[in-house]
Amino acid sequence: MTELPVADDVLAAAARIAGHASLTPVLQSRALDAMAGCALSFKAEHLQRGGAFKFRGACNAVWSLPDDVAARGVVTHSSGNHGAALALAARSRGIPCHVVVPEGALAAKLANIQRHGATLWRCAPTQAAREAVCADVQASTGATLVHPYADAQVIAGQGTATLELVGQAGAPEIMVVPVGGGGLAAGTALALAATAPGCRLVLAEPAGAADTARSLAAGERRIDFVPDTVCDGLRGALGAPNFALLQAAGAEVVVVDDAATIAAMRLAWQVLKQVVEPSSAIALAAVLAQPQRFAGRRVGVILSGGNVDLEALPWRG
Q: Residue 152 and residue 246: Cα distance in Å, rounded?
């Protein structure tokens, strides 16, 4: 298993990526506060470079590599946001980037990856196929694998979003983040340990890919499932280091159905005037789904990404 990152690694990541990642704003809405019954602070990571928080982890991983290793390039597998982020980070260092993409990935996200200069490699839409093609590319190019969520440097980099939120808006009492593979969630746990140890961590997870909820309840990873959710960015299975960090942090999970997520996405567009994707809107949906859990609290929410296929909005048709 990947060596587990610690809170100090998040602080080091913040310094490493400071010249590359955007300092995204924190947004508030009195209307949404009234609807939710709590004080919400939204960290606008959909406005991050590449359109998602993923640039933070990718950038930290790319710039952590020694020069001779970096020169051979990087490779990953991704349905979109991590691939685009790694391509952008690699371009910032002038090194090659290879992204293995599953058939059926959103066209808007694939275009985003290509826009940043990566070489695309297609594979079947299974975890085994992704990993097999990645291994082939590694063997033929010498590129370094930067895993989308189980890489220690990626996890540490993702935690910098919460680090910034605490600096901008103060420590929340509850922090809500989406969870798929668990890179953002685990990084958030480390950032909270460093800056807001009394803050509860709540993970928003789709009902059609609720392996984190099952795993934390069972005390071991339960990742044998076929994802069925509109949240394409949250279909990955929970990583081993991610599980260990979330379990140690006492993370809680709110499982959300897709209909509630789509309603929250539309609400974010209408009220916040922000274009966020379903995998991002699920965090707001979790708060609205269980108001008693958040009532009267200061709640931080990471709006994780905004790479939406405008030709296939979930409320059209």
A: 14
Strand pairing category for 26-27 and 39-44: antiparallel
Q: How many helices (H) and strands (E) does the chain have?
A: 15, 10
* Token couple for 66: 């020694």
Phi, psi of 189, deg, nearest 5: -60, -45
Instruction: Name the segment(s) of the chain with CATH classification 3.40.50.1100.
Output: 7-53+152-303, 55-145
Contact assessment for residue 66 and residue 97, using Cβ atoms and an 8 Å cutoff:
no
Q: Quote the radius of gyration of the chain (alpha carbons, Å).
A: 18
Nearest to 157 by CA among 16, 46, 27: 16
How far apart (Å, rounded) are the C-alpha atoms in residues 148 and 52?
13
Is 291 within 8 Å of 274 (Cβ atoms)?
Answer: no
pLDDT at residue 2 in the model = 57
7-53+152-303 placed in CATH 3.40.50.1100: yes
Between the alpha carbon of residue 175 and those of residues 27, 48, 53, 166, 201, the distances in Å are: 15, 19, 16, 10, 5
Answer whether 297's CB lies under 8 Å from 40's CB.
no
Q: Check pLDDT > 80 for residue 127.
A: no
For 243-297, how does the pLDDT look when each residue is reduced to its tens digit (9 = 90+)?
A: 999 999 999 999 999 999 999 999 999 999 999 999 999 999 999 999 999 999 9
State which amino acid sits at residue 244.
A
**Are residues 52 and 306 in contact, defined by beta-carbon separation less than 8 angstroms?**
yes
Given a cut of 90, is residue 126 above it in pLDDT? no
- Cα separation, 228 vs 205, in Å, equals 12
Is the pTM value of this prediction over 0.90? Answer: yes
CA distance 277 to 257: 15
CATH (one of 3.40.30.10, 3.40.50.1100, 3.40.640.10, 3.20.20.210) for 55-145? 3.40.50.1100
Q: How far is the C-alpha of 35 from the C-alpha of 14, rounded, in Å?
A: 34
Listed residue (50, 278, 298) closest to 166, CA to CA: 298
